[in-house]
Amino acid sequence: MGMGGQNGEGCSSGCVKSDPRYTWEEIQKHNTRTDKWLVIDRKIYNISQWLKRHPGGIRVISHFAGEDASEAFQAFHPDLNFVRKFLKPLYVGELAENEPSQDRGKNIEQVEDFKKLRKTAEDMGLFNASPVFFGLYLLHILVLEAIAWATLNYFGNGWIPTIMTILLLAVSQAQAGWLQHDFGHLSVFKKSIWNHIAHKFVIGHLKGASANWWNHRHFQHHAKPNIFSKDPDVNMVHIFVLGDTQPVEYGKKKIKFLPYNHQHQYFFLIGPPLLIPVYFTVQIMKTMITRKDWVDLAWSLSYYTRFFITFVPYYGVFGSILLLTIVRFIESHWFVWVTQMNHIPMNIDHEKYRDWLSSQLAATCNIEQSFFNDWFSGHLNFQIEHHLFPTMPRHNYYKIAPYVRSLCKKYNVLYEEKGLWKAFEDIVVSLRKSGDLWLDAYLHK
After folding, report:
1. Is the domain of 277 the same as that of 378?
2. Cβ(71)–Cβ(111) below 8 Å
3. CATH classification of the domain holding 58
4. Is the same domain home to 113 and 78?
5. The domain containing residue 296 runs over which residues?
6. Average pLDDT per consecutive 10 residues, the chain (445 residues; last block may be shorter)
7. What keyword terms does UniProt attach to this protein (predicted)?
8. How much of the chain is helix, strand and coil, in % rounded to 5?
9. Measured between alpha carbons, how far is residue 265 from residues 16, 261, 268, 330 in Å?
10. Pairs from 153-157 (Cβ < 8 Å, separation ≥ 24)
């Protein structure tokens, strides 16, 4: 047990026993499939069995096994006192007194300054959502759907009304995607239960997807952004090679599932057009059925039921399926370009064990603020602030942004911001660069 032996054993009666103490070296050994410990505020917890009950999924909490998870714990949970109740039975000891609070040589001053920044945001009320903002946002989504139906009902199913309906539904679906993202991050209501209910309504009934599938996937991305084997968004199942490290590794091993030196070209064929209508749709349905997630499946089927009841009278069954496919096709382009512009051009690599500020800034960048950019991206143009404070309501990102810039400048952490079209262009440039690295390694190393 190492330092854990210093727990007062053998002392005379009346001696006060202290909790077991452990070193970081000992803690880091508890990072196996069946044995997982993590540290929160110097206290050590054994999550080996409990992780199966973790609401955010098994993987996201497992990614911090053997590490200090204090910053992630605070970032993901708006009600810390409630969550700490679940930690008490998992407690096994504390860090030894001579051990630093942060593991692996992280900058303690930087970590402490980020804590102060979070406290500043709390004191400014930036974690309080505006009911008016989110109420109007939901209303504009519902109004777009209503206008789409009214267009067909009034003008019939000719080419022009059909095109108008498709565009209105695509905009509505994309905006519903950003709204479900807000509820999924528990950033609207103070009580988590209301966020969960609203999340299932928006992602399930308004979009036909699964809240649990989204949570388990997306929280991993936030916990370890752009980290291979931990962020599912960079797990491209051999279709693309990303960053500077993976292409060289694939090239040296002579791995060639596709001609990666052309990935910046075939990205346009299999990336934006197919992600939502093919990959996500199949994966979501498969996940709900295999995991027997009947609640999410019921929400999802309520969307499809409503959709076909609405549009079959105008287009028939096959016409309605085609209509839905085209809407998904347009939405998929919108979703891919917006979500990837902040990440693919950034650092993508294996685990580096950075502190929260450094890890999030290495993997994210911002897009210039404007009314259109805010609406078009669901405020994900403030990707840096969103990743640092995932439970903060999006309408407050611009208020905390100057403080984040100042902190980054103090510690020489890159805070990158660019224009929208430059961000789109950088996706293609990044894919081309990675493809060239792969080809060079494939041919010459």
Report:
1. yes
2. yes
3. 3.10.120.10
4. no
5. 107-445
6. 45 58 96 95 95 90 95 93 91 95 94 97 98 98 97 96 98 98 97 96 98 96 96 92 97 96 97 96 96 97 98 97 98 97 97 96 98 98 98 98 98 97 98 98 94
7. Fatty acid biosynthesis, Fatty acid metabolism, Lipid biosynthesis, Lipid metabolism, Membrane, Oxidoreductase, Transmembrane, Transmembrane helix
8. 65, 5, 30
9. 68, 9, 6, 19
10. 156/314, 157/314, 157/315
The reply to whether 173 and 250 lie within a common domain is yes
Residues in a beta bridge with 40: 43
* Nearest of 400, 391, 397, 396 to residue 187 by alpha carbon: 391
* The pLDDT of residue 6: 46
Of 42, 70, 105, which marks where a domain is finished? 105
pTM equals: 0.93
| Domain final position from 105, 125, 146 | 105
Residue among 212, 214, 204 nearest 299 (CA): 204
Q: What is the phi/psi pair of residue 272, to 5°?
A: -55, -40
**Helix/strand number for the chain, H first, E second:** 18, 6
Q: What is the per-residue pLDDT for 16?
A: 45
- What's the confidence (pLDDT) of residue 388? 98
Same domain, 88 and 148: no
